[in-house]
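User: Quick sanity check before I run a bigger batch. Here is a single chain. Can you write out its predicted 3D structure?
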Amino acid sequence: IDVVPCYRIDKNEAIKSAVDRSPLHLEYIIENISTTQRDEARLLKQFCKGIGVYGSDTRHRGFSGYICELLVLQYKDLQGVLRSARNWTIPKTISLESVTVDAKKHFPDQALIVIDPVDSKRNAAANVSAENLVKFILSAKRFLDKPDKSFFFKESRPLSANELKMLAERKTKFLVVSFKRPDVIDDVLYPQLRRSLSRLRAVLEENDFSVVRSYEFSNGGSILIFELASWHMPDIKKMIGPPIFSKKHSNEFLSKYNNAYLEENTWVAEKKRGFLTPSDLLKDFIKKDINKLKDSGIPENIAKEIRNAKIFDGENFWKIVKKNKELSAFLREKYFTNLNLY
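Assistant: Done. Predicted structure follows.
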């Protein structure tokens, strides 16, 4: 049993802790949902689990149980929810209490907006990612076109031999940074993994390594995945300077680079590159002490573990994918799920 304390508040009253609305949510659902709709809500929750979009936590960024219940209240039953969803456009706004809200003003960049009936200033679906909303809309269309119980039971399949071949034929290079999972809950871990992923991607691109895609993944350990369009740089880097007509900036540039030359009216120089491969670059970056990593944008819990990370690329990456079935299934979902809404 979890005992979660909260402050008692009234409808539309400001919260003092994150869970203060929970009793109001429960009361609203109990007062408004019928016996039949309880089962419809359970079906909708199972549908969301089956298509992989259930759970509003920071790991899944999907539909909460509360959102499923509100959708059933709004559209009567599972069929009603799916019939409506197949025609949704993004952003989609839903209000059970007929509250008029300027969604673009109050909830910018949020794909699904469900006005909380106990707090009209809150989007109860704020955690739903655009990707999961698209999956839900597409699954509604596909289920209504061809109903099947498989929609209710998630099947996790690793990459097939043909899919592995298709990834290899992209002629990119995959690189993973693998390290011990910090001893924190998912709601702390995943935002920090995403911040770390973003920071390392920026480091790669600042050094001219073009990143096609990047993902975070965690099961027993933590993995940051990068697909690279470029992975080996020449020994020199071309530096574009100021126009020759700018005396002050020209002097500054020439004092810094003694090998400068002109291309038309612009100063250009060449400098020796620090790292020729992304692996060498990231190995050097993560070996900083914890405080320097934190100052560089790596969150504290990740900084403690990433210093001991192992980096795999090339054939070593494919060996990990073939060995780690969960990672393989994750990549299959990311690369081979059709999200074409139109």
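The first strand starts at residue 92 and ends at 95.

User: Great, the batch can go ahead then.
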